[in-house]
Specification:
The protein has about 150 residues and is an all-alpha fold. It is built from 6 helices and no strands. The protein has helices at about 1-20, 25-50, 60-70, 95, 100-120, 125-145. The protein binds heme C. InterPro entries: Cyt_c/b562, Cyt_c_II, Cyt_c_prime.
Length: about 150
């Protein structure tokens, strides 16, 4: 009986310790981060179109999409868990090999996104807002160039 209890405790400890390495199943982590990136894309679409003059500049629409983008701006990175470098993913191995540089690009993007919301809140001019949308788009591309296949 005592041995069995010990075995159960050992088993539980093992489960917990494995759990701390990576709580999520790698495939769930990949689905999760790709899902958040789809939210990025959903919001960048109209913003980019406004910046490029493909649709008329609309302050309310810009505020909505910039706000939504900024609310999820820090969410994808936690999905790049250990072991989720393999599978149905376009992430390059460099994300895990050079995590510091990846985190830096993520921080650059978050900053650009926060600045966009700030400009819109301050009721900055249309030109400055459009230029900052361009900066956000550039921060997406800059990370994709180095870390996305
Ligand atoms: C710090 C790096 C980084 C930044 C910043 C970044 N991305 Fe990505 N993005 C990635 C990586 C890595 C992948 C591949 C994820 C995967 O397949 O596991 C990806 C994938 C995507 C995908 C494909 C998702 C799917 O369904 O497979 C879209 C769309 C996307 N990003 C849009 C954006 C947009 C829009 C921005 C800016 C608003 C952005 N990303 C900013 C790194 C980044």
């Amino acid at each position: 009986m005592k041995t069995m209890t010990k075995a159960l405790i050992a088993g539980l400890a093992l489960t917990l310790s494995v759990g701390t390495v990576s709580a999520a199943d790698p495939e769930d982590a990949i689905d999760y981060r790709q899902g958040v990136f789809q939210v990025f894309k959903w919001n960048m679409g109209p913003l980019g179109a406004m910046a490029q003059g493909d649709i008329p500049f609309d302050r309310e629409l810009a505020a909505k999409h910039a706000g939504q983008l900024d609310r999820v701006a820090d969410m994808p990175w936690q999905g790049f868990t250990e072991g989720s470098d393999l599978g149905n993913t376009d992430a390059m191995p460099e994300v895990w090999m050079n995590r510091e540089a990846f985190d830096e690009k993520a921080a650059d993007f978050e900053q650009a996104s926060a600045r966009l919301v700030e400009l819109i809140t301050e009721e900055a001019g249309e030109r400055d807002i459009r230029r900052q949308i361009g900066a956000v788009g550039q921060s997406c591309r800059s990370c994709h160039d180095d870390f996305r296949m």
